[in-house]
Design a protein that fits this description.
By secondary structure, the chain is mainly α. The protein is built from three helices and two strands; from the N terminus they run ββααα.
Length: 76
């Protein structure tokens, strides 16, 4: 199903790579509640657009891509 919303801590290393996620400071309890409400009330079209963007990023930046980039950078 493409009907989900990713709520992600803005403190994670992946946050800058996944701008389609609803990002939140996990120490801000009010902000977390707002993020949950935002996700629950998000229109279906926006949820699908965000999930499509997340899938594209995840399929492109998989562990093989990361390892290749990492090994390439240490060989320089």
């Amino acid at each position: 199903s493409q009907d989900g919303v990713l709520i992600l801590s803005e403190l994670t290393g992946a946050a800058y790579l996944l701008p389609e996620a609803v990002q939140v400071n996990p120490y801000d309890h009010g902000g977390v509640a707002t993020a949950i409400r935002t996700a629950l009330e998000m229109p279906r079209q926006e949820r699908e657009k965000r999930i499509d963007g997340l899938k594209e990023t995840i399929e492109t930046l998989d562990v093989h891509n990361w390892a290749g980039n990492f090994l390439g950078s240490i060989q320089k």
